[in-house]
Amino acid sequence: MLSKLSSVLKKSFDKIAGAVFLDKKTIDLVVKDLQRALIQADVNVHLVKELGDKIKKQAQNEKIKSIEKKEHLTKLLHDEILALLGKEKKEFEIKKSKQVKIMLIGLYGAGKTTTTAKLASYYAKRGFKTAMLGLDVHRPAASDQLKQLGKKTKIQTFINKDEKKALNIYKKYEEQLKEFDLVIIDTAGRHDLDKDLTKEIKSLTKEIKPDHKLLVIQADIGQVAKKQAQEFQKVADINGVIITRMDSTAKAGGALTACNETNAPVFFIGTGEKMNEFETFNPKSFISRMLGLGDLEGLLEKVESAVDEKSQKKLKKKLEKGEFTLRDLQEQLKSIKSMGSLSKIAEMIPGLGKAKIPENLLGTQEDKIRKWQHAINSMTEEEINNPEVIEKQTSRLNRIAKGSGTTTTDIRQLLKQYKLLKEMTQGAGDLSNIDPTQGLNQKQMMKLARKFGKKMRV
């Protein structure tokens, strides 16, 4: 996301850090490149000019010793970009002590229905008993789309394709919805915030009394986000904003800074099409990722969204008994895949954002994971539970390779990885003593490192 701005920011910091003397020419060059990148990211021209003027003014401050000026300007540059996006992370907190209803509103095409499912999935993974309610009675495919997303995310979904009045749908399911900790409500949009949409939002709000009203806007509208946020604030008294399509546009900078200007906090951003490509918006972490410095908080959030707590507890019990099959490995591969592309994950790991990783390496690893998934799907239950039989009979290897569109080499690599992981789980000592919040203790880690260090391969 915002790859051009990210690249320029990295170069700007490097130029300041590497300059022998911070002369006027160097500063002008840094400011010019930065301003151009910000304008291309659709940030307001007046804000861009103010930022450039402030950097130049500080660079000319003779009171700052030359030896300290680099650090001073580096911090200034970081802080000013941070100020454009919003200095602090705005926490969106909900509690299980009482039922919470969140209504998503916005214009047509903003991605409300998909975002409804993403938000529901996000909280379901965090232990909330969650339901989705479809109140978009104007777009014919809305109900079907929400129903399909409900099946995909395994979240209870309430719709009524035949009903043409949104309030009637809510009243029909009102009692059933009381069983849930959290209800995410999808509403209809229009091409503009016209009288009909305004009337519908006010009517639903009065009857449903949602605890939160979140405006959904797409990043590719850029600075227009400011006008939308202001209009919806007046009409619907929104609590905050969710920005979608952050991965597919250069205008995301305009949408983020515009919302900050209106004091409408951005709580979440959608970074891709997958359900788990959805995260809380933290300005500091966002800038850190753009600078190639990683985002551990965001990475842990992705892991939490990808990992199903029940399945992990089930796996832990199996490992304690010394059981580990190819089906268990497949489930772990699914979790990795659901976190998004390996390139996106790499961006969030401190140090890897700036590392010169060969362009094709991460793609090769993703391709390998995909092939392993297909290979396991082509195996019999006997082969999945006892992979040793595959190596003993080459006819099985050939059959699996042919059925999965892979090669026998791919399958041998899978079996090698499986054996290594199984050996690791059996060699880690008594897994029942592992604190799930702390992981392996130092003694267990050293034991694993001695035993498997030389076997590890990317």
Summarize the structure.
This protein has 458 residues and is of the alpha/beta class. It has helices at 3-18, 24-40, 45-59, 66-85, 112-124, 142-153, 166-177, 195-208, 224-236, 252-261, 283-290, 296-306, 309-320, 326-338, 342-348, 359-377, 381-385, 388-392, 394-404, 408-427, 442-452, and strands at 100-105, 130-135, 156-158, 182-187, 212-218, 240-244, 266-270, 278-280. Strands 3-2-4-1-5-6-7-8 form an 8-stranded mixed sheet, sandwiched between helices.
Question: How would you portray this structure in words?
Answer:
The protein has 3 domains: 3-85, Up-down Bundle (Four Helix Bundle (Hemerythrin (Met), subunit A)); 100-275, P-loop containing nucleotide triphosphate hydrolases (Rossmann fold, 3-Layer(aba) Sandwich); 303-455, Signal recognition particle, SRP54 subunit, M-domain (434 Repressor (Amino-terminal Domain), Orthogonal Bundle). 58% of the residues lie in helices and 9% in strands. The protein is built from 21 helices and 8 strands. Helix 6 (142-153) links the parallel strand 2 and strand 3. Helix 3 runs antiparallel to helix 4 (66-85), helix 9 (224-236) crosses helix 10 (252-261) and helix 14 (326-338) crosses helix 16. It is flat, with a radius of gyration of 26 Å. The two termini are 26 Å apart. Mean pLDDT is 80; it is low at 428-440 and 451-458.
